[in-house]
């Protein structure tokens, strides 16, 4: 079951890494993109619920109302900031900053549930902080700084989402992500300056909103049923490698030297920590 949960999460993360490419190839602004993604997420996941559960769908929402409201809101708002970050700065900047999620997961786990992290998490957190500092200070005064801040907020909310969700193992993940889509659409509707799009953009948004975004979020959320929040966050670092690669391959977007250096520090520290955790698990 543990291996299956890891594979499900990895597939979800790889799908999530493709999202950034969809965001970059469209010319519409971040909030317009977010609005349609949110609408399509909400519709597609509720169609799945109605098809599989039929009349039980309303019951699912009633029974899971607390985790749906809390986790759905955290998920939705984090995606809004994530899309804004991708549209404002480079993909590499965004995903390297999002790779700092284990640091925030450890913090929120202790703050909310008094779960103390092991010594290795504190060591990794130090190097993550160093990497983040390099990325931010290398771009002081540049237009990328606003995008970096968006990414940092998204990383915080995403980590908090995983930590809270890990306490609701029985909550329906489809309903949570569907409500998150509604949150995305609602926020974007009131803040977007223009919601008009052309047909080619609509096709891209349909593919992203009906399939890629909701499926990736559901798969990653399902992983939290068998995996601790910190382990899920560690698996999320795969996106930090895959997303910039896909965007470079198609769009030839090259990150700055500071982003490369800071990102390398973050990814290396997380990779070494993963090897350590694997060794510990084999010895127990």
From TrEMBL:
GO cellular component terms given for this protein: membrane
Domain EamA: 4-136, 146-274
UniProt xrefs under InterPro entries: EamA_dom (IPR000620), EmrE-like (IPR037185)
Taxonomy, superkingdom: Bacteria
Keyword hit for Zinc: no
Residue ranges crossing the lipid bilayer per the database entry: 33-53, 65-86, 92-113, 120-141, 147-164, 176-196, 202-220, 232-251, 257-278
Pfam families: EamA
Keywords carried by this UniProt record: Membrane, Transmembrane, Transmembrane helix
Protein name: EamA domain-containing protein
